[in-house]
Design a protein that fits this description.
130 residues, mainly alpha, 6 helices
């Protein structure tokens, strides 16, 4: 195969490429129109959906999903205990059956976080050493 260095400032004058480009212009325009149509349709759907949600909230019919666990649920309490004792989120999921993402959401909701290893070791005196 022979490679020829081309001057980048000089345009390509390939007749086949130009013919192909001219031939496919209507297809490009057609695709652009379809994309625009689909995008505007999606915007209209989202606007109507948002209006419907506002109306439903005013009527008291749209309240969101019900929580899976209450704060004093025994499975959730066991999950928090295991987590604070050092079990990974995956281990907690296996032992309690609570989905990992759901567990993360509840940990953030009830502000359950592990102490860092340094904090466990040094306690409240950690900040005085820094």
């Amino acid at each position: 195969m022979l490679f020829v260095k081309r001057n980048p400032r000089k345009p390509i004058r390939d007749r086949h490429y130009q013919d192909w480009q001219e031939m496919h212009k209507p297809i490009y325009l057609h695709n652009i129109l379809y994309k625009y149509q689909a995008e505007s349709e999606r915007k209209r759907i989202k606007e109507r959906q948002a209006q419907g949600i506002v109306l439903a909230k005013e009527n008291g019919k749209f309240k969101g999903g019900k929580p899976k666990f209450s704060e004093n649920d025994p499975r959730l309490q066991l999950a928090f205990k295991l987590y604070l004792e050092g079990a990974t989120e995956k281990d907690v999921e296996r032992q309690t059956g609570i989905n990992r993402r759901t567990f993360q959401r509840y940990r953030n909701k009830f502000n359950i976080h592990r102490k860092f290893k340094e904090e466990k070791m040094w306690g409240d005196n950690l900040h005085s050493f820094r």
